[in-house]
Write a sequence for this structure.
């Protein structure tokens, strides 16, 4: 399935309703294996030991520019529809920020703010691995959405390791969403908050994301973040 062929209207509805949307399987087993191999063969600008920084247990690597062609193409192809959603959310929240239609124009805005380091990354967890709840913000400029592709199969390659999103509304207890993503499945989700309708218009409900503890095996995934880092 190509990115253009995704059921975008349904995905927009899901993003508005819950801050994330599962787009289904977009990569087959061969494509997932090829992407997994990048973990050991691609050029990366930085490798993070999560335990060292108390982010969780596991490792992730930020790609260097130029991105691998498949990563670049996924980032470029996903951006326009997500920019449409971002502009809709900005309008609902009364924000002045608007996002250009093309990724390269948005990256020029990042560069003007001193954010020039690429942020797409690969993440790998072994048994006991997990990712603490967090938000991926790397500077003054931040895009409201990001994407996740799981490249391993739960039940075959690993156990546990569910994707977790937690929403915090003002003066309310947190609500958790837990997603078991299939190999090759794409999930889109908010970077920091989503608009929620209230009695006086829309307000911001903060959201964080992470990965539950793996019971066994190994989970590799690709994270696509659209704003660059300072």
């Amino acid at each position: 399935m190509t990115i253009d062929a995704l059921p975008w209207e349904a995905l927009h509805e899901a993003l508005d309703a819950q801050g994330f949307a599962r787009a289904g399987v977009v990569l087959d087993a061969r494509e997932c294996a090829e992407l997994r191999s990048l973990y050991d063969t691609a050029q990366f600008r930085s490798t993070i030991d999560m335990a060292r920084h108390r982010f969780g247990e596991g490792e992730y690597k930020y790609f260097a520019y130029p991105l691998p062609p498949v990563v670049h193409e996924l980032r470029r192809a996903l951006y326009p529809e997500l920019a449409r959603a971002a502009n809709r959310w900005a309008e609902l929240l009364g924000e002045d920020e608007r996002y250009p239609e093309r990724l390269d124009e948005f990256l020029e805005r990042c560069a003007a703010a001193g954010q020039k380091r690429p942020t797409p990354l690969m993440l790998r967890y072994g048994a006991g691995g997990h990712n603490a709840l967090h938000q991926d913000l790397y500077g003054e400029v931040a895009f409201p959405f990001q994407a996740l592709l799981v490249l391993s199969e739960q039940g075959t390659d690993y156990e546990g390791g569910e994707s977790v999103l937690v929403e915090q509304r003002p003066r309310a207890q947190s609500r958790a969403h837990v997603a078991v993503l299939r190999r090759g499945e794409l999930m889109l989700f908010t970077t920091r908050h989503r608009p929620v309708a209230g009695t006086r218009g829309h307000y911001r409900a903060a959201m964080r994301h992470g990965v539950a503890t793996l019971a066994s095996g190994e989970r590799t995934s690709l994270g696509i973040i659209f704003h660059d880092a300072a």
Observations:
- The two ends are 34 Å apart (CA to CA).
- The domain at 3-225 is CATH 2.60.120.620 (Jelly Rolls).
- The mean pLDDT is 96.
- The helical segments are 8-18, 29-41, 69-92, 103-112.
